Amino acid sequence: MRKIIPFLLTTTLFGACALATAGATFAADPASATAAPATTQRAARQQRFFDKLDTNHDGVVSRAEYQAWVDSRFAKLDSNGDGVVDANEIAASPAVAERVQKRAEGFVKRYDQSGTGKVSKADFEAKELSRFDRLSNGADTVTEGQLAAHRRAFMNNH
Asked: Helix (H, G, I), strand (E, B), or coil: what is residue 58?
């Protein structure tokens, strides 16, 4: 349990810093508005998050504003209100359940080719084999370099 809270706080802080930096970059560079749709969507999410942190809307996030967000975030994880969280409490938290639900809905939306709200094995195979064909440029094999390039592109867009 001792490792979970510092990890969550560290990743949260890192994410907030990245969001603040990205927000400043997009605000300062009008050319960024012509970025790819995924980048634009990410920038919009980052801006919404920054706006959520910047509760007095003065364009900066103070330590007090950030502390309020941290406290609120922890309170959502600490569903029984005892001041500590363990892995089971985090896994059962409404925030995690909501995130899992959104990811599951996104998965179904991406893979459901029939529009039934369900992903068949055929749907899943078709989408994944189409991805293989893109990675391999139509060849019957994929190199480690092709996979690494795809992984980098995926990480840059998510």
From this structure: coil
Taking only the tens place, the pLDDT of each residue in 91-124 is 888 888 999 999 999 999 999 988 999 999 999 9
135-151: burial string, b at 16+ Cβ within 10 Å, e else: beeeeeebeeebeeeee
Asked if residue 15 has pLDDT above 70, the reply is no
Closest of 60, 62, 92 to residue 76, by C-alpha:
92
Contact yes or no for 87/1 (Cβ under 8 A):
yes
A 10 A CB-CB count for 16 gives 18
Q: How far apart are CA 141 and CA 133, in angstroms?
A: 9
Q: What is the dihedral of CA 15, 18, 20, 22, to 10 degrees?
A: -140
Question: What would you measure as the largest C-alpha separation in the chain, in angstroms?
Answer: 57
Candidates 110, 76, 107, 81; CA nearest to 93 is: 76
